Amino acid sequence: MEKVRNFSIIAHIDHGKSTLADRMLEVTKTIEARKMKDQVLDRMDLERERGITIKMQPVRMSYRSRGQEYILNLIDTPGHIDFSYEVSRALKAVEGVVLLVDATQGVQAQTLTTLDMAREQGLVIVPVLSKVDAPLARVDEVKLELAELLNVDVTDVMETSGKTGKGVPELLDGIIDRIPEPQQVDHSANFRGLVFDFQYSNHRGVIVYVRVFDGVVRKGQTLTFGASKKTFQSLEVGVFMPDEVATDTLTAGEIGYIVTGIKEPGVASVGDTVLPPSATVRPLSGYRKPAPVVWASVYPESQDDFLLLKQALLRLKLSDSSLSFEEESSGVLGRGFRCGFLGMLHLEIITERLRREFDLDLIITLPSITYDVTLTSGKTERVFSPHKFPDHATVRTVSEPWAEVTLITPSEYVGSIMQLLYEHEAESRETETFGDGRTKLTIAMPLRELMRGFFDKIKSVSSGYASVSYTFGEMRVADVCRMDVLVADEPVPAFTRVVSRRRLEEEAQDTVERLHEVMPRQQFVAKIQAVALGRIVSSKTLQAYRKDVTAKLYGGDITRKMKLLEKQKKGKKKMRSRGKVHIPHEVFLKMMRSSE
Questions:
Q1: How confident is the model over 93-146, as pLDDT tens digits?
Q2: Architecture of the structural domain at 192-275
């Protein structure tokens, strides 16, 4: 165990975690040079396309330092705030972290959030600058900033370049020197492993990723899950190099995988402990369950695909434990699922994976958050879906979640950002000015407003320089109401929203206008209306297709034409009273994208 080091790389998004991991794999010769590619630990197509890490990925490296052979277990983590649950799980499996800061950007908001998570776990922090070879790098300034943040000497901050590999061997030596070796929790012979992630294979069932805290596990050993009490036989044990490589054993201090052979969902869960069935030792403390932030209903375009959608969500749940869902039904859209996500990017990634990996055509309702509604009868209920929000006449009070937001921006953009904060009903709490011309703003704002395109607008007004991170705060009284959208007098639940009363007129006009633009014309005149507080707030008419029924006539009395036009008018009237408007899948998608 004295030759093992377990660590993770944490940083703000796009500060070079995956690139630095690539150079580490090259220096330690874990991957042959001919097989090397950019973002080698990012396995999903989506990760490569967007240049972001979505799933944490463990890898084991062998490194010779000062005549000794060491095993370095790295867990590469995502940087986006929506995937912070992945980071928290990775931190529980390691003894130290490399805190990476971009030398061109300095400490960002998410840097502070992940640093707090590492400190909570009591991990050793190795401060490192990345991109030191960039033309705009402010190496000395950012080193000082990072040293002050961690209360360490400036000489303790290491310099690296993921692009050229500069400083990577020195960093690996620094990790060996500074991060402690794993400590065995219980010196008895009993095996205990913490499940920090898992995946599903059609042939081998659930494969659990474990950090071994005590004892040894072998292939063919009978094991059980501490929480679900399900017993299984380990079909294979091994390590990540970064592909799965089978080994004879996994011993205390190591990170690896166990193939369980279990093919039923709901048995394995992150934070569970794997141990022998007869063990008398207590399971390890696990993780707090993540609370969904954004809710959206997902329906298959064809109800024949309902079971396929259910299987797809169960499969995704195996690789993304922060996804939650439950079945629901709508009179217009049929049967579907109400899904909980950790943010807008998480929602976008999951729906994109459903389409790509399972070839599903989906209808996704507009995202919303949860509200606690007290009715005039005195009863309180929690509302997840906007179309289930009670009618305004029956509502006494509404409470909504607020978020504590940390925002770091160059000082010249503070004026523009303050105006934006007013538009999003935010309260400014604290302002702190850094020595390098940047300002840290601590604000509180409704979660509803945070999800209303706040991140994009902040990036826009600050020319991309501001960074944002948030945590959940208290529940507060909200002045909101339900806004329904009617198409041809039929309510469409997918377009129902809960909006602030002060923005009701604006939201209603905007929604009706956008729907009028993307909605295809029908065979009869259809009205698009936004209804709230018992009245029509905005309305627009979608004109019908009209066939020229008089084209075949030539000459003769005008009454012949009038008779045909009157017949057509009656037909359109009858069609309007009986007809149903078909809303194509693309309309739902366009409405969702334009509301982000």
A1: 899 999 999 888 888 877 888 888 888 888 999 999 988 888 888 888 888 888
A2: Beta Barrel (2.40)
Topology of the domain comprising 481-595: Alpha-Beta Plaits (3.30.70)
- For residues 385 and 392, is the Cβ–Cβ distance under 8 A? no
Check if the beta carbon of residue 524 is closer than 8 Å to that of residue 572: yes
Start-to-end CA span in the chain (Å) = 49
In angstroms, the CA 242 to CA 57 distance is 8
How far is Cα 23 from Cα 17, in angstroms, rounded to an integer?
10
Rounded distance between C-alpha atoms, residue 89 and residue 533, angstroms: 45
Beta partners for 295? 340, 368
For residue 77, give every residue at least 6 positions away whose Cβ sits within 8 Å of its Cβ, in sequence order, or none. Answer: 8, 9, 10, 17, 53, 56, 83, 86, 87, 90
In the block, residue with structure tokens 């909605």: 519
CATH number for 4-178 (one of 3.90.226.10, 3.40.50.300, 3.30.450.30, 3.40.30.10): it is 3.40.50.300
Q: Which two tokens stand for residue 97?
A: 């972290």
Q: Which residue has the tokens 């036009």?
A: 565
The set of long-range contacts for 302-305, using a CB threshold of 8 Å and a minimum separation of 24, is 302/361, 303/334, 303/335, 305/360, 305/361
- Exposed / middle / buried, residue 152 (Cβ in 10 Å: 0-12, 13-18, 19+): middle
Give the CA dihedral 489, 495, 501, 505, nearest 10 degrees: -60
Dist. CA 549–CA 552, nearest whole Å: 7
Contact 564, 550 (CB under 8 A): yes
User: Could you tell me whether strands 216-218 and 249-251 are parallel, antiparallel, or unpaired per DSSP bridges?
Assistant: antiparallel
**Long-range contact set of residues 455-459: C-beta below 8 Å, sequence gap at least 24:** 455/344, 456/596, 457/420, 458/407, 458/417, 458/420
- In order, the DSSP letters of 22-57 are HHHHHHTTSS-GGG--TTTT--SHHHHHHT---S-E
Q: Give the count of beta carbons closer than 10 Å to the beta carbon of residue 315.
A: 18
Whether 372-477 shares its CATH topology with 481-595 is answered: yes
- Of 474, 532, 475, nearest to 503 by C-alpha is 532
Amino acid letter, 240: F
Q: Tens digit of pLDDT for each residue in 34-86?
A: 666 666 665 566 666 666 776 778 889 898 888 889 999 998 887 777 777 77
pLDDT digits (tens, 9 = 90+) for 549-569: 566 777 677 787 788 778 877
Is there a contact between 296 and 367 (Cβ–Cβ < 8 Å)?
yes
Residues 6+ apart with CB under 8 A from 308: 300, 358, 360
Crossing angle for the helix pair 585-595 and 504-518, to the nearest 10 degrees: 140
What superfamily in CATH does domain 294-364 come from? Elongation Factor G (Translational Gtpase), domain 3 (3.30.70.870)
Residues with Cβ within 8 Å of 503's Cβ and at least 6 positions away in sequence, in order, are: none
